[in-house]
Amino acid sequence: MSKLDMTAMYVMHHALRRELEHLAKITARLDDDPRRLLSTAVGWELFKTSLHLHHTAEDDALWPALRQTLAGRPDDLTLLEAMEAEHDAVDEVMESIDAALAAPGTELDCLGDLVDSLVTGLSGHLKHEEDQALPLIQRVATEQQWAHFGQVHGQRIGPEVSRLLPWLLEGATEEEVETMLAPLPARARVAYAAQWQPAYAALKRWDPA
Question: Averaged over 60-76, what is the pLDDT?
Fold first, then answer.
């Protein structure tokens, strides 16, 4: 079995970790109200959108296919269940953060504790996935299964590609950028260079609206 190209997975993980750092910095700021900053920041919306489509693509198109492949292997199936449970736990924290931002009078300590939980939970999940789930996928997934997951993931990014692709590729290496852009139609690659990336570069995504 040939080795699967997991560039997109690692690029997404890098982007999520990058944004977690921004979230932690915002809630630690003393020169402004973190509640106002976070509730109006474009960066929070981009982060939520990207994380949601990434995790739901895994839940809908990756883990179910692997579950069939791994039938009769309880330890591996337990790992897939852990991946889904960790997704659910992260979702709950994200929802709690949004609820806290929408509630008048939310204490700063409460918001800080929730963001700390998000940073810890999502960072732990990404490491768990990289340490155990991705090696398992590399061993057992077929090229067709992996391609299907990539297709579903791409379709879900589709409507937001002009915003999410530059977000995803911020800080990526030249090789990673080339790998990610290669499957796109020529017109999309031109649009990325001429329009999408410059517009994203000008966006102050973690400043208040």
Answer: 96
